[in-house]
Amino acid sequence: MMKKANLIMLGAPGSGKGTRAAALCEVLGVEQISTGDLFRHNISEGTELGKLAKSYMDKGELVPDDVTAAMLEDRLKQPDTKKGFILDGFPRTIRQAEMLDKMLSDLGEKITAVIYLDVPDEEIIRRISGRRICKSCQASYHVSFTPPMHEGRCDKCDSELVIRDDDKPETVKKRLEVFKSTTFPLVKYYEDKHLLVTIPPELSKAGAVADMRELARKLNLI
Ligand code: AP5
Known about the structure:
The chain is α/β, with parallel strands linked by helices.
């Protein structure tokens, strides 16, 4: 029996939020909502929002709260989120968390749990330096841990795999600093609300779907 779940995936850049969220969505049959992917989609479409977001993302900075929250609110109002969702990359500031509380209460919804991926910096650098993403469908690979079947090509759509613009070492350093100063306080914010579930690095190994099924059982979601 599947229960409805509205989850948040919290963690540093490269901690595996996207990978884990995709696996957990497969287990629970809910929607994955990645604010990073929504921005990258706008950038590839050349929208005004995309141009604005790019000016922050290329520097490793956060896009302003109001802009990001408005984009998320539009997405949350779409009917497919009624069956549940996993937020990947939102909230990233205490203000965004407060805005999310208000948005969800207006929609008659609430957060079921917040999953925090606790991964050390050296592992994060290893993961980000080997990441390749599909130019067309955004699927993510790692040259050593999760390589594609054919080097440089996406398994799903055969498009070229590229290094993400914000995965350059100097931008990654900035993104990690921003995480520690601005996003990490959310761990306490959600701990205080008794919503936080921390996943240690041992559980964050390849075999993501099996790990996430085990987590869903632990949270009584299946
Ligand atoms: P976003 O796209 O959200 O990037 P991020 O948070 O920096 O996270 P990443 O996508 O880099 O990593 P991830 O944690 O999803 O890890 P992944 O699964 O890919 O945001 C980008 C930018 O957009 C931000 O910097 C900001 O400017 C803007 N933005 C987005 N949301 C915003 C918001 N709310 N407010 C303001 N601005 C916002 O894994 C990483 C790699 O490791 C992959 O290669 C993967 O294959 C590999 N891997 C994953 N898990 C494992 C494992 N267990 N073992 C080995 N390898 C693994």
